[in-house]
User: Fold this.
Amino acid sequence: MKILNLKLLLFFVVSSFLFTSCNNSDNIDSSQPISADETNTFVEVDNISDEVNNVIDDFFAEESLGARSEDSNPGGISSLGCIARTVVIEGTTKTITLDFGDGCELPNGTVLSGKIILVHAVDTDVKSLTITYTFENFYFNELNIEGENMVVRVRENENGNPQSTLTVNIKITWPDGEFASRRGTKVREWIEGYDTRTFGDNVFLITGNWITTFKNGTILSATVIEPLRREMACRFIVSGVVELQKNDRNGSLNFGDGRCDNTAIFTNEEGEEFEVTLRGEIF
Assistant:
C-alpha cells in the first residue's frame, strides 16, 4: 500500500510539472517579426492578382462599349490574337471562356496560359454586374493560380469612374512548391485609361483588407490605410500605405511617392525603418 501511494504521489507530481510546463510554454511569445521574404511574397501575390483583375476589367470595358473590332480597339485585350474567346448562353446565364492557350504574352511582358472562365447574368446593360470567375490550368508566367473570385462591377462610382469590388479567394503556387493563399475584399477604382482601350495606360486606386496565408501556416493580414496606386505600365505599386499584422507584430509598408521603382519602406512597431527590395523587374 505504501508503494502504491508513493507511485500515485510521484504520478501527480510529474503530471503537475508537465501541466505547468505546457502552460508556461503557451505563454511564451514565439512570434517572429515580419520578414523581408514574407513582405516580398505579399507584394508579389498582390501584383499577380491585380494584373489578372486588370485583364478582366479591360475585357468587360471593351464588352460594354461594343469595341470588338481590331480597328476600333488597338492595344486592348481583345486585339491580342493569342486569346481565344468563347461564349455560351443558357437561359439568363452567360459563360465566357478566355483561353490563353499554351502562352499568351500581354503588352507588359507577362505571359498567361490556361483559361479564365467568367459567369454572369445575360443583361449587361445594368449599371452593376456581378461576375464569378474561376481558373482552369491557369498560369501567370510559371506560377499556377487556382480559386474562385467574385467581382461586382459598376460603370460609374461617386467619382464617375468604373469600380470593381472583389471578393478574393485564390491560391498561388510557385514552381518550387511554395504557395500562398489570399482571402479578403479589394476595391479597385479605375481612375485612368478606361476610355483609351490601351492596357498599359490603366491606373487603379486600391483599398480594402485581406489575409495572406503562407505554406508554413504563417498568416499576414493587411489593411490599406492610404489608397494604393497601381499603374499597369509599372510592375510595382507606385504609392500608398498598407498596415501589416502577423500575430502580435505589426508594421506599415509604404510604396513611395509615385515613381516606378522596386523599393518600399517597412516600418515596424518600434518605429524602425527598413528598405525592402521587391522582386521583379521594372518595365
The longest helix spans residues 36-65. Residues 1-30, 67-74 have pLDDT under 50 and may be disordered. The first strand starts at residue 84 and ends at 90. Helices lie at 2-27, 36-65.
